[in-house]
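Batch job 17 of 40 flagged for manual review because the log was empty.
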Amino acid sequence: MSASTRPGGSSMSEIGDSRLMQIIGIFRRAAKKRNEILKEDLIDAVEEFARYSSLRGLPENSLNMVIDILTAPSKLDQATIAAIVKHLYPRSKVPEDVVVKVVGCFGQGQSRPTHATQALLLRWLVMVYDVLEGHNMLSQLYGLLFNFLNMISLRTHICHLLSLLTRRKHVKPFRIQALLELKRIIGNEQPLLGLLQIYKDYYPDIIVERLPPTKAGLFSHPNPEWMRKLLVIQEVNAVNSLVGSEKSSFQVVRKHGSQGGKRRKTGHLTVPEVHTYRAVESSVTLEEIGNIDDFVAKLDKLELPNQLAAVIEDPLLQKLLDLKFSETDQQRISNWLAAYLSCIVGGGAEERLLKRLLEYTNHTKNLLPAIESYLRKCLKTYIDPKQLDQVLDLLAFLPIRAFKELYVNYFALIDSILCANNIRLIGFYTRLLRNWVLLYSSQLQSSALSNDIEDTIIYYMRHVGSLIVKALRGSRQVTSSALAFYEVVASFPAKDSTFRLVLPPDSLVYHSLFAGDALSLSRLCGILAKYKWNAEESRKLSLSSLNNSWEPYSRAIIDHLNGIVMDIVNCIWRNRALSTADNSLGCNIPQELTKKYGEIANSREEDLRQLYSLTRSTALARYSKEVFSALETRDSIDIFNRHRGPLTQESLKILAAAGGLNTPWREFKKEALKDLEGRGLVGLPELMYSVLAVFSTE
């Protein structure tokens, strides 16, 4: 008979918190008096407990109750105790009072549980170390735990627990002497050697004895599968667990042995761990920092670790280097990376290494020379398609330098690799430009290299513009990526002489205008509105007595920008599509072709000038119609007197005369612009408000 159908048992779905309390009550009674509970009932209770805990985890109060039972002398047989301890899955982080109870039950005496139970609880404490609510209490109990090294049944896991807890403040001469004496008595016991090695790492001058090597995985987690299951349980219960939660970067759990040791393996890469050797008593090391208060209080006294390459994986060291930046430290990190990356043949770097390098570069916003050199080698040899995104994300932090150098070493190769994926290619150039604006816009205004950098920016945008023109010929899907690029351009600081606007290609402008997509049209108008504002600010700066050296944009650029804007205004607002009057460009369509289009429209009883207006264009007509219908509903217009067909100025006059909604044409268009704003299509209204005189007084 299966456990799920055993008489008196419950199915997994039926086990609730109330039943859990009953089960714990059975354990308590069985622990106090032998044969108080029938053996079959106790087996059923253990199985139900195991199912409940494995599925939902134990609440804090239930965990406390079970620990109370296990840490006291008990009549339960050892197999039952082992089964209970095996399924002690805490639903949330383990509180410190549980830790105190467990440690408090260790030792000799009739008031203690059996040595086997003590060993099981100690092993469990090691397994839940990473999900403890805090480690301060355990640290305070360090001396007590150290004294249990003489107990054979506890020594292995005591060494493991001490290896996780040990910081420089714990390493005292009398403890070193005690460990060496214990080694002399019991011999080269692996856990003891591992703990001694940790002590020696802190004070190599005191422990001069050469220690035998320890085996790999000495202080690894006793049951990784159990830990994975625990983390899943805590995630399901939406608790701040070790995995899936935002961990404070000031609570870095540094482990020794194979759980971290001196070095951590990232694929085939061995990353040094944060460790400060030959520290003196008065100094403060990163290993001793437990929270943000410690970090701030001891910032001036903090010493950098011996291996700065640990910064790749250690967030606390990253913050320390941010605050104590020096070119020498950066060069040390770059040299370490160069030594490792130079060993990679054919660009076959481990994926996790690239991920770590990307995380570090994202944090510093600075591409180290060693990484840059390696990426250049990758571009010239081979890039694993699975790693291409990470390589491109790293290259998006390339520093500004002469455009020719950038083009030969990077851009030409990237263009070739991504020639079949224009969206991905333009996306890369957009990220690179955004990073340049963020990093350099405030740094180069007084730089002697400013003029050279300005030329690089201009050549760069022309290069991307030419790629966009070619891409538009083959695909319309590239429009969104292209507009994203020019949204970055439009965000250039107006008072920065380094980043000067370059107009988007005419083909992109008119493609977005006539494509029939309201979002693309709105984004284009938003870009041009920002261009207009930036150009006006530049003109004001050139006229300011404080900026005599400021050069405004050339007349040719301003005239072309105004021409593009007037084309859009003519199409959408003035019902003069493709006109060349008032400095308009006529959308760059030859007059002979415009005349032919007009004849075709006339043959269909249409007016070419109105076909791209706010109420007639394929991108905006639906929204305008919905606005007008809403106005009719608001005024309770009879259904028979409502407007039908496309909206025009003439049709509104006829409608008003027939008893329909009477609203001025201009006022209706203003309502249509407000509606577009409400829909999130703010670019078109912004452009109209900034250009049209009708809005200048509003």
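Reviewer: the log was empty due to a logging misconfiguration, but the result itself is present. The longest strand covers residues 263-266. Unflagging and moving on to job 18.
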